[in-house]
């Protein structure tokens, strides 16, 4: 019996591919054990136990950005996290550590190396984070979601997608999806989402432009995220929700999408052939622009700077796209041409070696 320790968490971008891999490992190796390493504060603290997995927690120890008091306490805290993870590895007889990036992955990689346990990494972003750049130096295998991701010895596997996404028949699910969200299956739907935490610019612009969009005959399904800072415009054909527990149905209903360019969102829209407008998060290391680069280059998406995504842009460019069915059909085919529906199986094959 093999014991796998899957490390990652914090946001849906880390948790969802981790859970997709965990589920597939459990399917193909029912006698093996799958444990998850995360923090007590992240999204994994709710989603992992709900999915039926044991969650082992370690303290969140972010790398210091500047030399201050927190930097002085980093070294002992980080050493403590490594020691805690190594003790977990030895206590549970872990055979393989699989990391998905984020705070908990770095101590997991170092602890695994010290315990002489192999490390396998999945990098979701086209521009890798610090944890995976470190771990990739000694990992047995590295799978990446996007071609050209600069990690040594990396193999393109695509994004591990949840079973309900990778097997989604959008046409067959449309009526159920429309009923679930209270929309009309016979009329086109624009899906708007900024991720689990929301996107201030996208939310504000879409709310302010709602009347322009519904005037085209389109319906809007607006998933605001937890930090919305906008009110429901209460327009006909406009549905605003904070979180979509059935994101598979939201994607089934989407004839076009507006979203951030998080790795999971880009991968899901490409895999399902959804023409999309991507508004990359303007803060950070710019990875979201790189995430969308391949699908945009193929013609399956449109990239818009955060500062440029304003009602004037919606009233001209987005409305023009919504009115052009031929262009959307071409974008859908282009997106699907670079998407991957088998990322979960390919990643699991890499892990099992």
Nutshell version of this structure?
This protein has 353 residues and is of the alpha/beta class.
Which structural class do you get from the secondary structure elements?
A: alpha/beta
CATH class of the largest domain: Alpha Beta
Number of H/I helices: 15
- Ranges where pLDDT stays below 50 over 5 or more residues in a row are none
Number of strands: 13
Notable characteristics:
353 residues; alpha/beta; Rossmann fold; 2 domains; seven-stranded parallel β-sheet; 13 strands
Overview of the structural elements:
The protein has 353 residues and is α/β, with parallel strands linked by helices. The protein folds into two domains: 3-156, Rossmann fold (3-Layer(aba) Sandwich); 164-338, Glycogen Phosphorylase B (Rossmann fold), CATH 3.40.50. The protein has 15 helices and 13 strands. α1 (12-28) crosses α15 and α11 (263-272) crosses α14. The two termini are 15 Å apart. The mean pLDDT is 93. One of its GO terms (cellular component) is plasma membrane. One of its GO terms (biological process) is cell division.
